[in-house]
Amino acid sequence: MTKEQMEQIVLANMQKIYLYCVRRLGNATDAEDVASEVTVELLSSFSKVKDDRAALGYVWAVADNLCKNYWRRAERYGTVEIPEDYVGMQQITVEEDMIHSEDISLLRRELALLSETYREVMIGHYIRQESCGEIARRLGISQTNVKQYLFEGRKKVKQGMDKQREYGVYSYAPEKFTFNFWGDNSTGYWELFERKLPGNIMLSIWDSPKTMEELSTDVGVAVPYLEEEVAKLEEFKLLIKKGGRYHSGLVIYDRAFDDAVRESARAVIKDNIDFIKAAVEKGKSLLPETDYQCYQDDENTRGWFILTLILWEAVQQSESKMKTRLTFPLLANGYKGYVMGLRGENQLAMSGIYGMYSLDKGYMRILNYNVLTDKVVNPFESGARGVFCACEDRLGETAQLEKLTDMLERQIVHVEDGKICPNYAEISNKDYEGLMKQLAAEIDTVAALTAQVRDKAADILASRVPKEHTDAREIGSIVSMWSLLENAASAILETGYLTKGTPAQNLTTFYFKN
């Protein structure tokens, strides 16, 4: 043991040493003197402690010896009275009280780390005073099994009490975990991660496969409270038990992966910026032949409309050009798809990508770029659909007055000639499809570039996760799906080719009429 370690032990136990001396000597002043002697002796003889686990025993042995020396000195000079409550060798000392309390605390800790059957048998026998037969009947197992559980349980508890357990960082500093899903139906999955504990269980297991006992100490939650959470995660195959240890059943990616993919996407955009500008100019020249219209329309607004059209359609078509093939495996809830998790805060370039297909006469596409607008539009917000439907028919009123007021203030809609009108681009499906055909070559080229970004992301993620996660390539290509779309807005703004426009313009919301 080092001197620094002994100093820490002395600092942590100074009050207990003093109280022990008070109890043994019956005099506060003398106790202070002897406690000081104990401290000096411990700090000068730390090298005698060869096993760190024996340190506390050594502390109390020194304290006991120096208290005895005090009594010997007192007897020699005959100046000290024996305390009334001193009962000789049968006295229960502070040291013994402390050791007993510490043992009880360690016992409780180890019982809390036992798996369910071991825990039930041990508590039943030693705390409830049940016989082996009673325990066997209650748990539905044989008396022989009960005796085996008792034998092994005692060994587990004894071995555990001799250990110095280190609680993991998740026990006091839980990380941010975001569950993500891509597939047909996410029923049952999202509800699992409404609290922090399941996410931190997944992060702990992702760091390294663990037994239930190891997981308990890492997240700082007793096994009885952990078993149900683990069982739910096992049910959805998010945790898989192999050889007594739990392994992660989903891929977890982090900010470093996100950054690598974003950098890859930005590089592709910058390398092809002249082509993208030319494609946008071609599309703008075709707009007068369509029924496109937009409130406060100008060259900048048309540019964003065409850029978004090209990028959106390219992202949709990129899957057919990827080397990575998406298989959409069967999930535990009976549907096909992928489950994945994000470690840490999500660095989103968009605060929402929405599509609303339940409007009466058309549908909406909303891309809330953080760098382009602070008008976060969510068509599913309470009352929003009613206002959008009023815009469709150019109505003079709507039942959603509170939402209308909000959307007017945020300049998502405006009132013109007494009617509610949109602040965003509108075009018919027919003319939109016509534009797509005329820009097919440009969309195809950007789709190939997007496929490159997605394949590279698949390679990056596959290289960063354990090989047992065979779906990592597919998940990498899915997570990166919007990278080109997200980074295009930032790259275009940096060039000055397109701008944020005026506060009254909404450059990220589009309405397609049937």
List keywords for this structure.
54% helix, 3-stranded mixed beta sheet, Arc Repressor Mutant, subunit A, 4 domains, 19 helices, 11% strand, single chain, alpha+beta, Rna Polymerase Sigma Factor, Chain: A, 514 residues, 4-stranded mixed beta sheet
List how many beta strands DSSP finds: 11
Alpha-carbon distance between the termini? 80 Å
Order of strands, main sheet, comes to 6-7-11-10
Rg, Å, rounded:
35 Å
User: How confident is the prediction overall: mean pLDDT?
Assistant: 85
What percent of residues are in strands? 5-15%
Shape: elongated
Unreliable runs, pLDDT <50, ≥5 residues?
77-100
> Please, how many domains?
4
Content-based structural category: alpha+beta
Order of helices and strands: HHHHHHHEHHHEEEHHHEEEHHEEEHHHHE
Major sheet summary line = 4 strands, mixed
Helix content: 40-55%
Q: What is the number of helices? A: 19
Short recap of the structure:
With 514 residues, the protein is α+β, with helices and mostly antiparallel strands. It has 4 domains: 3-91, RNA polymerase sigma factor, region 2, helix turn helix motif (Rna Polymerase Sigma Factor, Chain: A, Orthogonal Bundle), CATH 1.10.1740.10; 100-161, Orthogonal Bundle (Arc Repressor Mutant, subunit A), CATH 1.10.10; 169-249, Winged helix-like DNA-binding domain superfamily/Winged helix DNA-binding domain (Arc Repressor Mutant, subunit A, Orthogonal Bundle); 255-513, no CATH class.
